[in-house]
Design brief:
Elements: H1 2-17, H2 20-30, H3 38-60, H4 71-76
Length: about 80
């Protein structure tokens, strides 16, 4: 469950930074179908997919105790 919560936090932050992808998808499906709006779908799809893959990669990455001294103790509730 701890990994899932970490993933959700990272995913929300990544979506905040890369909100353009979901916005492109929403606009694409909200407007009338036109040939000029086709790029919105593909750009939104690639940006959103990239956001999700980045969040998954960051979630899977181990916490580096050397880079963040004391983090592991605080996380375990010792400090």
């Amino acid at each position: 469950m701890e990994t899932f919560i970490r993933y959700v936090k990272i995913q929300l932050f990544v979506f905040l930074c890369g909100i353009v992808g979901p916005i492109f998808l929403i606009v694409f499906f909200a407007v009338q179908p036109e040939p000029d709006t086709k790029w919105l779908y593909w750009a939104g799809l690639f940006v959103t997919t990239g956001d999700i893959l980045i969040a998954l990669a960051l979630t899977h990455a181990p916490v580096d105790d050397v880079a963040v001294p004391g983090f592991s103790q605080r996380r375990r509730g010792r400090g």
